[in-house]
Structure formats: structure tokens, C-alpha cells
Design brief:
341 residues; alpha/beta; Aspartate Aminotransferase, domain 2; Aspartate Aminotransferase, domain 1; seven-stranded mixed beta sheet; 14 helices; globular
Length: 341
């Protein structure tokens, strides 16, 4: 890849950290404090996360990556004879190198979905043989908000799904790597973007932080060994203050939603421009990701200027991801790149 190729739309992971995050890290880098989370930064960030999601009884853990946060949450929920359910495009299924299966020893089963949105009745087939010794026993279902294809779960649909899962004795995990984008897109209270989920991954890495994600454990009684899982996989950082200080910074004055809203606006502008240019959208643009169908020549032309991801190598779909740092000039350049010579 040449040096002139921009990573502006490669992923929100490619964006720099927000200046207020860097400032928070500099401020945290002062003197000695307790290690392994026994520090004032972790205490304040934990309180901020619980307040943000209106979850006063929850416990909070921090991890260095989103994958680790998902693995911690899912592994702590199951025994090796049990089953984790997910959508057919879930990050935990396609992009975590089998991490949940290796750490949990449990089966990970894909469910058909509409861009990651799962209909409640789809769960029926997996619970039909519950109790039979020949079959893995479904224990938890993980959904993503916003989904890997850039869709959001509206509160009503989310509540319907979670209530259905709970009635059938399934725990629910929300992979919230882009939860801020969903909250901003739906313009709702953060608690309404996660519904009555039992455990939630709260993304920071994809939204203006240097690194770090959190796990919001809303029903700790269902995850009794979760702190041991965190330790076993090397995610109990001795210098946890540097993760916690970043969360404290982005949650202060709702910076996390301001940055997410900007990313969403840039995606909406890019999506509208693509549609006006006659480019077909592969999925509706509802948060900060734009999925379009491009022919080979157009894809090659785009890749001369931008690093973009093809989620499925067998389909002509290209993903553009906007971040807090995406500019109007970036969007204009991307639209120019798709124009015929």
C-alpha cells in the first residue's frame, strides 16, 4: 500500500485519539497510584459508566480491546457443554479468530439475520432440544448495537428480542463496540440502546479513545467467575488507570456522543452522495458505516486513494467507516474517487 493511500475510511479504529483523551492520559501520568484497578481513575470511570447507562447495581471491568471484552463477557456466561448464539455476521463469529470458543469451550452458533438484526422466533430452533444430552445447551445470545453492517436496534425491537430471549431462559449480551453511534443515531438515553441486556461491551477504541473497552455487568449473579476470566486472558491491566482515565474523559460532558454524532453525520453525507452518484447501497446507512456495491474497476480506483474493507471477499461490497475525525474534505474526496475518469 502506497504512502498516498488514506486510511480515513478504513475503520474507526484507524482514527487518532481525541485531544481530550490525550490530555486525560497526560494528566493521569502523574505519580504513583494503586495497580490493577485500585486507583481513583478506575473508581471515577466505573461510576461514570454506571451513571451513563443508569445501572447503579452493575459491576464494571475494563479490557484493552473489544475482542477481549467480548471474550470475557461470553466466556464467563457458559460452561463447555453450553452454547453461545450470535448473528451470521457477528464480530464474535467472524472477526475474533475463534476466541470465544477457545476460551469458553462452548459452541458458537450463527443465526440468520437481517444485517445483524435477529428476529426473536429464530431462537426457537436452538432451544427446541434443550435438555437432551446429545446437544449443546443454549445459554446466551449476543447481539451487536450498532450491527456489523451499520444497522441499529430501535428500542422497541430490542426490547421485544431481549424479552423473548429472557422468557426462554437465555442471557443476552450486547456487543457495544459502536454503542455510542447507536445512541447518537437513535437520539435516546444510553440505557434504551441496550434494553434489559444482562451484560454489555461498551466500546471506547472505536470512538475517540487510544485503546480500551469496558464490560458492564448488569446481572453479576449470572457471571460469577468473570473477574477470573479477565485475569486469565491477560486483561486485568496493572496500569488500569490509563484505560479508565480515557473513559472518564469521553463520558464527561457527553463527549462520546458528540464524537459519535459527528461520525454518523459524515456517514450520512457520504451515503447520500454515493446514492446521488448512482451507487447502490448494500445496507441502509443508520450509524457511521456505509456499505456500497461497487464494480471491480471502481473498487480499484477507490483503493488507489483509500484503504477500504471488503467484508465478504466473494461479494462486490465495500465498506466506508466514518469516525470522529472524518472531515467534509474526506467525504468529498471519497465521492470524487468513485466518479468515472
Amino acid at each position: 500500500m502506497g504512502s498516498t493511500v488514506s486510511a480515513a475510511f478504513a475503520s474507526d479504529n484507524a482514527a487518532p485519539a481525541h485531544p481530550r483523551v490525550i490530555e486525560a492520559l497526560v494528566n493521569a501520568n502523574d505519580g504513583a497510584v494503586g495497580s490493577y484497578g485500585t486507583d481513583p481513575y478506575t473508581e471515577r470511570a466505573t461510576r461514570a459508566l454506571k451513571n451513563t447507562f443508569d445501572a447503579p447495581e452493575a459491576e464494571v471491568l475494563f479490557a484493552l480491546t473489544g475482542t477481549a471484552a467480548n471474550v470475557i463477557a461470553l466466556s464467563a456466561a457458559v460452561q463447555p457443554w453450553q452454547e453461545i448464539l450470535c448473528s451470521d455476521i457477528a464480530h464474535s463469529l467472524l472477526d475474533e479468530a475463534g476466541g470465544p470458543v477457545r476460551l469458553a469451550g462452548a459452541q458458537l452458533t450463527a443465526l440468520p439475520s437481517d444485517d445483524g438484526l435477529i428476529a426473536p422466533h429464530v431462537l426457537d430452533r436452538r432451544i427446541a432440544r434443550r435438555g437432551e444430552v446429545h446437544h449443546s445447551q443454549p445459554r446466551i445470545v449476543t447481539i451487536t448495537q450498532s450491527t456489523e453492517n451499520g444497522r441499529v436496534w430501535p428500542p422497541g425491537r430490542l426490547t421485544e428480542f431481549i424479552d423473548y430471549a429472557h422468557r426462554h431462559e437465555l442471557l443476552v449480551h450486547v456487543d457495544g463496540a459502536r454503542i455510542a453511534n447507536a445512541v447518537a443515531a437513535l437520539d435516546i438515553h444510553p440505557r434504551d440502546a441496550i434494553g434489559d441486556a444482562d451484560i454489555v461491551t461498551v466500546g471506547g477504541t472505536k470512538n475517540a479513545m487510544l485503546f480500551g473497552d469496558a464490560v458492564l455487568i448488569r446481572r453479576p449473579e449470572h457471571f460469577p467467575g468473570i473477574r477470573f476470566v479477565q485475569k486469565q486472558i491477560g486483561q486485568l491491566a496493572s496500569k488500569q488507570r490509563y484505560v479508565a482515565a480515557q473513559f472518564e474523559a469521553i463520558l464527561h460532558d457527553n463527549l462520546w456522543l458528540q464524537t459519535a454524532a459527528h461520525a454518523n453525520r459524515m456517514a450520512a453525507t457520504l451515503s447520500a452522495g454515493m446514492a446521488a452518484a448512482g451507487v447502490q447501497l448494500a445496507s441502509p446507512t443508520e450509524a457511521n458505516e456505509v456499505f456500497v456495491i461497487l464494480d471491480a474497476a471502481t473498487t480499484a480506483r477507490v483503493r488507489e486513494r483509500f484503504a477500504v474493507h471488503a467484508p465478504d471477499p466473494l461479494k462486490p461490497i465495500v465498506r466506508f467507516v466514518c469516525s470522529w475525525a472524518t472531515t467534509e474534505d474526506d467525504v468529498a474526496a471519497a465521492l470524487d474517487a468513485i466518479a468515472p475518469d
